[in-house]
From TrEMBL, chain A:
Name assigned to this protein: Transport permease protein
Family assignment from sequence similarity: Belongs to the ABC-2 integral membrane protein family.
Taxon lineage: Bacteria, Bacillati, Actinomycetota, Actinomycetes, Micromonosporales
Keywords assigned: Antibiotic resistance, Cell membrane, Membrane, Transmembrane, Transmembrane helix, Transport
Source organism: Micromonospora wenchangensis
GO cellular component: ATP-binding cassette (ABC) transporter complex
Automatic annotation (TrEMBL), chain B:
Name of the featured protein: ABC transporter
InterPro entries: AAA+_ATPase, ABC_transporter-like_ATP-bd, ABC_transporter-like_CS, ABC_transporter_ATP-binding, P-loop_NTPase
Keyword ATP-binding: yes
Biased amino acid composition, Low complexity: 75-91
Membrane-related topology note: Peripheral membrane protein
UniProt main location, coarse: membrane
GO CC field: plasma membrane
GO molecular function: ATP binding; ATP hydrolysis activity
Amino acid sequence: MTTTTKPATPPATTGRRRVGPGALALRQGRLEITQFLRSRESVVFTMGFPIIMILIFASIFDGTIGGGVKFTQYFITGMIATGLMTVSFQNLGIWIPIERDRGVLKRYRGTPMPKWVWFAGKVIMVVVIGVAETALLLAVAVALFDLDLPATAGKWFTFGWVAVLGVTACTLCGIAISSLARTARSGSAVVTPVSLVLQFISGVFFVFTDLPTWMQQVAALFPLKWMCQGLRAVFLPESFGAQEPGGSFELGRVALVLALWCLIGLALCLTTFRWTTKRDG
Amino acid sequence: MDDELAISVRGLRKAYGDNVAVAGVDLDVRRGEVFALLGPNGAGKTTTVEILEGYRQRDAGEVSVLGTDPGLVLGSRPRGPRAGAPRTSRGQAADWRSRVGIVLQGTGEFDELTVAEVVRHFSGFYPEADDPDKVVERVGLGAKANARTHTLSGGQKRRLDVALGIIGRPELLFLDEPTTGFDPEARREFWELIRDLAAAGTTIVLTTHYLDEAESLADRVGVIAAGRVIEVAPPDLLGNRQDALATVSWRTPEGTPETAQSATPTALVAELAARFGGEVPGLTVTRPTLEDVYLSMIGH
């Protein structure tokens, strides 16, 4: 009796190069970006939202905030922070439950793909879309509303680390909160109110110090307020720091709170992340 | 571990709270065979298969799939009898996953990606992956290669699922109700594909509600009811089907239908032929179908 074994391997495929883990992550990122860009809702609401908001805000408040500094200079910080939060926290919090519900995650789990590659793909997508969206936002604000870009390398450096820490915290929290949604549709019901409330109390739509003190204190528990504050240090003159609740831009505290949220988000991800839906076990 | 066995299961148990889904399943699947698992909804079929696929932890029992314990591949810490057992290394887990193909129940949609993009992407996960274009062609989606996956019909989505299940050229392929929603022609084509894979040596474990599917594809059939395997046999021997009384039907000269149960149908037919002096009008001789046997086994 002849034993049946694996199909005779055609030479064309035996010499196939095995894709290394780094390349796998890049492929995964490219796939996520393709998926994002092809979804019209994602592009309009995630990438377009901050730009629409700055168009509205800069048109309404076309005066100065004091000291010859334009209102745009203040509101751009909130819009950048909101944009970064939308692309990371909101985007992941809404899409991961959909993918989980559709069994996309379960299917990835059934392949030899290392688990971290899937997360890496999401992170690459968030970073690329976040950078593109922020650049677009700045370009629009410079072109239409004479926004002054940061003038020193130091300010750009601050911009960089505030954005990186903020996006990291929001990405981790977005992945974590995705596990709260039980079905595909409930993702946006869970995430949207959280983002909206944070935007209102964190000084995105209003000047933060005009808000009631208790509201400022609540906002100070969450990352968005600190992202806005860190960005104000970038886009407003040094002297404006005196008007912050803490009497300065408190960059040290900004870094500390955002880093803390990165840790909280990471811990929540590691303990609560699910590849399958609840009813699926 | 017997090398002739692709899957070996002893005393498998799994409960969700008070609900015992799998209550002591024993099962062997030989290498190279097509094994069909039948059973009513809620009998423990999917739970059993998902434990074998490395998607769920079990509560008790011994399980070996291609020589590896899928519970250790799952990654979460083993519980119950294997608490403290060494976890499979990442490399070993990935190696095992690359040898097992899975077609889950329900279709995974990839929204805005095209068929070719998804299949090509998944091919990157497997060391011995097949040519993505060939696989797309093979599952009958050649004409749809550049279509976005959300525009596919139910049957076409299922074919995409199968393409993703076989892209890694698995030694063992799980198919969970693969032809649900297919039209008859699509089912026949799908069966051909499964026969091809089986002929090439792939071990196939199939769950299905269609008994004709089990009958025409499977070398052996296992029936699960209430969390246990109640019988395993080739489809034509299940439930002592070959020994069951045959039903002989014909029409009398007056045109009234007549039916008789007989252990010796050949003799009966010969007698009828003599009585009618040649052709017996409306003659049929049947044995219980797999469906009849199956329904009586699961208590209907």
